[in-house]
Amino acid sequence: MSAIPSPHRDQRGQHLRDLASAASGPILSIAVAFIGLLIIIFFMGRILPIDPVLLIVGDQADASTYQQVAREMGYDKPLIQQFFIYAGDALQGDFGRARLTGNLVWSDILQVFPATVELATTAIVIGALLGIPLGVAAAVNRGKALDHILRIVMLMGHSAPIFWLGLMGLIVFYAALHWVGGSGQISLYNMDMVPRVTGFITIDSLLAGETEIFWDAISHLVLPAGILGYSSTAFIGRMTRSFMLDQLTQEYVTAARVKGLSRRQVIWNHAFRNIRVQLLTVLALAYGGLLEGTVLIESVFAWPGLGQYFTNALLIGDMNAVMAATLVIGSIFLGLNLVSDILYKILDPRTR
Amino acid sequence: MLHGIAEKAGPATLPPEVLQTARLLSFWRVFRTDLSGMLGLGVVCVLAILAVLAPLIAPYDPYLQSLTSTLLPPSAAHFAGTDELGRDVFSRLLYGSRTTLLIVVSVSVLVAPIGLIIGVCAGYFGGWVDKVLMRIVDIFLALPSLVLALGFVAALGAGTENAVLAIALTAWPPIARLARAETLTIRNSDFIAAARMYGASSFRIIFAHVVPLCMPSIIVRVTLSMAAVILTAAGLGFLGLGAQPPSAEWGTMISTGRKVMIDHWWVAAFPGVAILITSLSFNLIGDALRDALDPRKG
């Protein structure tokens, strides 16, 4: 082989270097944000109005017992040191035990997490499939009746309390019309019938060849995912419309039309091509928003996911579980931000 | 944000206070033409009046239980029916508007000064103050605000005051960022340089000159976030972490109505409609404000 690198390999090296430099900035700032998240959550665990040591020993305990328990819990150390102990434990996945289940918080979270991912992913697919075409349609028909109707539909999605939409959906589609399954991920008689492989009930039931259970799971998934999907349709549609308007008012669009290209070609091959990168960012943000939405929706539908685990922990003030769930959701948020930042830098040549 | 309009409103030699008034006036002229924005503003005004007059208008005592008339459907005597304890839902809705508006106002009163001071300090002093403060703002902006608010309420204990605190804790960063941007444009103007030459202290310049000029944009930004505040507060109430029963709060009412909703839809339905109308109105106002500030986008 010749010692001179082929132009092809050189190009690839350059490309990889570009990727690395594009990723390093966002990774650094996300790392700082992650430390910030740890500090905020640590602070959250320390502002309890009740003395956590007193909670365990009771008010009858004498001073020496109190001090012993405080020492065991690490509360006698300076606050900075306490923080480093907490951060070290958290990074190793050690969040202590949950009061509600008695299990390790981390194994609880791994248990419930797939259900939330299943719900949120279905919702984002609905949101993208509806929101992007509707947003484009609204921008193309700007100021016409269709634009106004879509604006109202999207504003409603922005303004309606999602938990209330869930309850109304249950009244109409479950109680009155019997179109969908009710609360939970699956009917009671189908519980624990398929072996857990991926944790996604729809996939697991298909793997086990149980099509009946699959359709049962789908009928339970449709309503919560549809309502979450509606709220992300509102967000994605609004953003798509505004991005498209920015493109459609530019001169190259007029030029392309003058050149004799059809409307459809200009809209999809020119204007839409230019907003794809921005849309990826929006999808990442929308997915983050959905994770927040799942907290309320899972509580409405008794969906056995992270959101319900979080609310149950909130209601009994189980701070181990609350802090861990906040850290997990916060980290996913930061991860999504990171991914969208890097994608933006890699795919949009103007940012290089 | 408002400076584009300022340039049109008058020559730059006018004193800043006059420019300020001119800016607001021309801004109002644009806003007034927006039909949906004016509709939202009208609804919010009506709501505020209803909230103030609730004790006079409400047909029943919102806390009066009547076990002989529980779960009555909507009728002429009870516009929105009665709940599981026989309380009049319509009266409770009226009183609920007080709680909601109180939360919105409290959050705004807490958040605006905090965001303003942090943002103005970052913008005015620059350097490492700016770097540190803006880094903190970025961290908060990158985090899920509802989840953080929920976590803080769990730590502080459920209740309206703690809900307000928790929402405020997660709502100040966008305001700080805006105040910083505004300050950066004001900081280098001649009248600030003049004030500095007269020997005015940083404290005086910030509070006498910079802060008043930032106010209009801050007020606009606070209005933009009100719909989100209402939804978060209702969500906290629904999860049982906000206002506690028996108090008349819309989110809490939905959560108690939930137990009977399959056969008695009105108990949970009407409070949700109230939340929807209120947050929709604030969103309409917000949209109109945004359009008025940036006429390029429709």
Automatic annotation (TrEMBL), chain A:
Keywords: Cell membrane, Membrane, Transmembrane, Transmembrane helix, Transport
InterPro entries: BPD_transp_1_N (IPR045621), MetI-like (IPR000515), MetI-like_sf (IPR035906)
TM annotation in the entry: 21-44, 119-141, 162-181, 217-237, 279-301, 321-344
A GO CC annotation given for this chain: plasma membrane
Keyword Phosphoprotein: no
GO MF terms held by the record: dipeptide transmembrane transporter activity
Domain of life: Bacteria
PROSITE patterns associated with the record: ABC_TM1 (PS50928)
ABC transmembrane type-1 domain span: 113-340
Localization annotation: Cell membrane
Pfam families documented for this protein: BPD_transp_1, BPD_transp_1_N
Gene3D superfamilies found in the cross-reference section: MetI-like
UniProt keyword Disulfide bond, yes or no: no
Main subcellular localisation: membrane
Membrane topology (UniProt): Multi-pass membrane protein
CDD domains listed in its UniProt record: TM_PBP2
Protein family according to the UniProt entry: Belongs to the binding-protein-dependent transport system permease family.
PANTHER family xref list: D,D-DIPEPTIDE TRANSPORT SYSTEM PERMEASE PROTEIN DDPB-RELATED, DIPEPTIDE TRANSPORT SYSTEM PERMEASE PROTEIN DPPB-RELATED
Protein name: ABC transporter permease
Biological source species: Neorhizobium lilium
UniProtKB/TrEMBL annotation, chain B:
Coiled coil: none
GO CC field: plasma membrane
Protein name per Swiss-Prot or TrEMBL: ABC transporter permease
Family from the record: Belongs to the binding-protein-dependent transport system permease family.
MF (Gene Ontology): dipeptide transmembrane transporter activity
Chief place where the protein resides: membrane
Keyword line: Cell membrane, Membrane, Peptide transport, Protein transport, Transmembrane, Transmembrane helix, Transport
Cited Pfam families: BPD_transp_1, OppC_N
Compartments it resides in: Cell membrane
SUPFAM superfamilies to which the protein is assigned, alphabetical: MetI-like (SSF161098)
ABC transmembrane type-1 domain residues: 97-286
Record-annotated membrane-spanning stretches: 38-58, 101-125, 137-157, 191-212, 218-243, 264-285
One of the GO biological process terms: protein transport
CDD domains on file: TM_PBP2 (cd06261)
Topology of the protein relative to the lipid bilayer: Multi-pass membrane protein
